[in-house]
Amino acid sequence: MKLDSALKAGGALLGLWDTLFGGTPHEASSAADEASLVGPVVNERNSDARLAPGLQLVLPVRTAKGQVVYVDAQVNALGQFADVDSPAIDHHPIEYYDESRRLLAECDNRFGARNMLPAALEQFKLVQQAKLYHSDRRGDWLRLLAEYADLVGWLHQDVGDHQAAEFWIDKSLGWATTAGDWSSMAFVMARMSQLAGEMGRGDEAVETAEAAIRMARPRSKIAAIAATYAGHGHALLGDSDEAERSFDLAHELLSDAEPEAVNWGQYFDEPYIQVCRAQSRTVLGRYEAAMDAYDLALPSLQEGFRRDQGVYLAREARACAGQEDAARAASLGLRALSIQRDTRSARAKLELVELTHALVVWRGDPDVQQFIDAMSAQPGGES
Predict the structure, then answer these.
(1) Which InterPro entries match (predicted)?
(2) SS3 231
(3) What distance lies between CA 151 and its chain's CA centroid?
């Protein structure tokens, strides 16, 4: 209640509290549950720059239970709050914003990119603002901006906006290059390969992946990531042998990889290589081999990758349809659709639309008809 009054939030903070925890703060809170700022307090008194009164800022506020809420505040109100009761900041702001990025990435896979994109963009703006007031650790700030830009690019990629995704990944590469961080540059190049592959640009996917492998340090997980995306590029070009060699190289590089000192590629592991191999085998028309790879990989996926599980289930269903196992394809499609409804992933939706087209010839089968009807019931669904 004090925060809501000091920040002139007009009851918005109290409403957020009620949404998250139920009841009002004086009913639910204790001294241990009080909220604290995730980022630094910025005001005219402690900033090197002059901020115009009335400037709107967004504060990330974390409760002791781990939730992060965002509160709009004006500079003059923020200054008044800081004068009265400014919380101590124990860590450098980079650590706070890096933790926020990790939280956004985790929530992305649980709740979907459409839900997380506005928060990620707001947090990116906060990082840019904070960098202006903290001139130390310049390389770390640039690396953090590169990581945020890549995250925002990924979120645009999952909602199906490839043009925006390309823009943000280009920005990420620019900041990584300015920082002189070769590992970050190599990873972003690998991400460029992934996006090119998703857009069907096989040549570009192979070229950028091979550049990333050359750029990555020896015995690097980032090189394994790039080799994986090179494999899909070769599959798009119809070269099965080169695709399989690239995936084998990815497994070899990952098994020999040393621990990374950077945040990139936390999602990447052996099952991830397998699902990418399976996708590429489907592209090549090797449906039975693709199904084998999915059966091997999906039970071993990292916990919390709900949205990606939906994408992979839809892709496995397409492989089953190619193998003319229509009933299994429809069953997997329904499971994928259930996840897609929650996460609203455009990548999963595209796979499901393609699956619908593949299953139309079996629409007399009750299981297939159930899936087709479920897809038709979706907003913008297939008829």
Answers:
(1) TPR-like_helical_dom_sf (IPR011990)
(2) helix
(3) 5
